[in-house]
Design a protein that fits this description.
Helix content: under 10%
Structural class: mainly beta
CATH class: Mainly Beta
């Protein structure tokens, strides 16, 4: 039987001018999903924009100095001290997310019915943005005018989005079969005497699945490919589907000294819920005719591969803040957030299935799944997010208009991993990501601005703007990471506030945002010696737009 060594049959032209940072020569979105990568740690810490109530969102969340809103608990707890009465509210959020993927060909053929589409480039979600209350615990006519306590939940990050990528007529060297064949040869993977390949270190789950699905084969000389011809053209399809959010339960206290100085503190308990599903599929085509039975008795028709990662965890942080009102129409605020120490549990599993034909006749259908991996307890992933420093100022004009602005500085280069779990045979990833964070990340800046005006005593109109800058150092803008990293973000907001009476109020807000991401590939191999042997999938880049609506119903008493 003739063997086809795709890894050396086609000399690949180096496609990868963009820098990569990896401890291995193998990478991509379809790789290393069984661990918490350094790009994951950054993305889970990227909370430059918070959500909260409809009033705060309508004003671009520029509430560091403004205060007297449930959002104050997560921005500047000194704002809790500005309440003159108790307040409880609940805020619901709905969002529509759309992803445009540069470099991708149409994922589905024109005219494909919706019910025939398995994957989408958009998501629709409903959830809870904020809920809780602030209660007046003490009032007097002395230096301490009042003391308030707050118990609040706020959503501080949203991870929901989906994207699609497709490329057609790629050379066989750029197939995932070649990726796992090269990996198996480089790392010297072995089969048992009876031709089986055991699941062990989850790093090699994909290579094991590739063997059982006929993408790779092995004999005494090493790994090779014998079911895909060297002249085959490959259609490739990928889908990234992310779900989840990061919420924070804040326990706050705020004090008001003579209506001039406000101080506050918050203990924040964060709750992480994150799911990622990465699909990749290949179809193998022969425009010049299928190989003969003598050349290739068994021929792969297609291969599908899906990886599912789920993260859940809790974290704790501490916030302090102070706001000063030197005159009744001007406020200045500052707050500091400690890093959040997160403890997370990771659950991972993968599945691959394929179809093989024998000289044009269907031979078999193979479906193989990797074991479920769970890292929890002593085998969990622990990391810290950046510390943050916030400045804000707010002006009241004519008693009817409020103008507010914030600046936030976050130290993303300090993101660090503190624990990596042990696997079989006491194998442990030697990871901390401190060096990577310092090398490629810099401090991030976010600017928020908002305005509120009462056009009628019971009706307020609001508008806001948020800008969040790039956290990558100069020279790393074209980085291809394992999972794409958000770069520049912009948000435009608007809102309406209605007071039904002295107690009941209703706020509505709308937000439009755009987020650019770094480039990504589903897989790639970079040869440490000869760049001519580099290969991989096509390069894609996502731009995500979000339409978000928040409704808040509140009661003051």
């Amino acid at each position: 039987m003739k063997r086809f060594y795709i890894a050396i049959m086609v000399v690949a032209v180096s496609l990868f001018a963009a820098p990569r940072l990896s401890a291995q020569d193998f990478g991509g979105v379809n790789f290393n999903n069984e661990i918490l990568t350094w790009s994951d740690v950054h993305n889970l810490s990227f909370t430059a924009h918070n959500y909260g109530t409809a009033r705060s969102m309508g004003m671009g969340n520029a509430f560091t100095a403004l205060g007297a809103d449930l959002t104050s608990a997560m921005l500047n707890p000194a704002g809790i001290g500005m309440y003159v009465e108790s307040d409880i509210s609940i805020s619901a959020i709905g969002q529509f997310t759309k992803s445009k993927t540069a470099g991708s060909e149409p994922y589905y053929e024109k005219g494909t019915a919706k019910w025939q589409q398995d994957f989408y480039d958009h998501t629709e979600r409903l959830g809870l943005s904020s809920v809780g209350g602030v209660f007046t615990a003490y009032r007097s006519t002395g230096a301490l005018t009042n003391l308030n306590v707050g118990v609040v939940y706020n959503r501080i990050a949203d991870f929901n989005y989906s994207s699609l990528g497709a490329s057609r007529n790629q050379y066989a060297v750029n197939s995932m079969a070649n990726f796992f064949c090269t990996l198996s040869n480089v790392d010297g993977l072995q089969t048992t005497a009876d031709g089986k390949m055991d699941f062990g270190n989850p790093y090699f789950d994909g290579a094991t699945l590739a063997y059982y699905n006929g993408l790779t084969n092995k004999d005494g000389e090493g790994w090779f490919i014998d079911r895909i011809g060297g002249d085959a053209l490959v259609d490739q399809f990928s889908s990234i589907d992310v779900r989840g959010s990061l919420g924070e339960y804040d326990f706050s206290v705020g004090m008001n000294f003579a209506d001039i100085v406000y101080v506050g503190a918050t203990v924040g308990i964060q709750s992480l819920n994150y799911k990622r599903s990465v699909f990749y599929g290949e179809n193998y085509l022969y425009p010049n005719g299928y190989p003969s039975y003598q050349d290739m008795p068994n021929q792969l028709d297609y291969m599908n591969y899906v990886q599912r990662t789920q993260l859940s965890g809790t974290g704790i942080n501490f916030k302090v803040g102070v706001t000063v009102r030197p005159v009744h129409w001007w406020r200045v605020g500052v707050a500091y957030h400690t890093p959040t120490y997160m403890n997370t549990t990771l659950v991972y599993g993968s599945d691959m299935w394929s179809d093989t034909y024998s000289a044009g006749d269907k031979l078999n259908y193979v479906n193989e799944a990797s074991p479920r991996l769970e890292n929890s307890g002593k085998n969990s992933w622990d990391y810290t997010s950046p510390s943050r420093l916030l400045f804000g100022t707010a002006f009241t004009l004519g008693g009817r208009v409020i103008v507010s602005a914030d600046y936030e500085h976050s130290w993303y280069q300090s993101v660090a991993l503190h624990n990596a779990p042990r696997y079989l045979d006491n194998f442990k990833y030697n990871l901390d990501y401190k060096g990577i964070s310092k090398e490629i990340f810099q401090s991030g800046s976010t600017v928020r601005a908002g305005v509120e005006g009462y056009v009628l005593p019971f009706l307020a109109l609001r508008a806001g703007y948020i800008w969040s800058g790039n956290t990558l150092r100069e020279g790393w803008e074209d980085l291809i990471a394992g999972h794409q990293i958000p770069t520049r973000q912009e948000f435009i907001t608007a809102g309406v506030g209605i007071k039904f009476n002295q107690m009941v109020y209703l706020d509505l807000a709308y937000q439009y945002s755009t987020t650019n991401y770094t480039k990504h590939q589903t897989f790639y191999y970079v040869d440490p010696v000869d760049a001519a042997l580099d290969f991989g999938s096509k390069v894609f880049q996502d731009n995500v737009t979000r339409h978000i609506a928040v409704v808040t119903l509140g009661l003051r008493f």
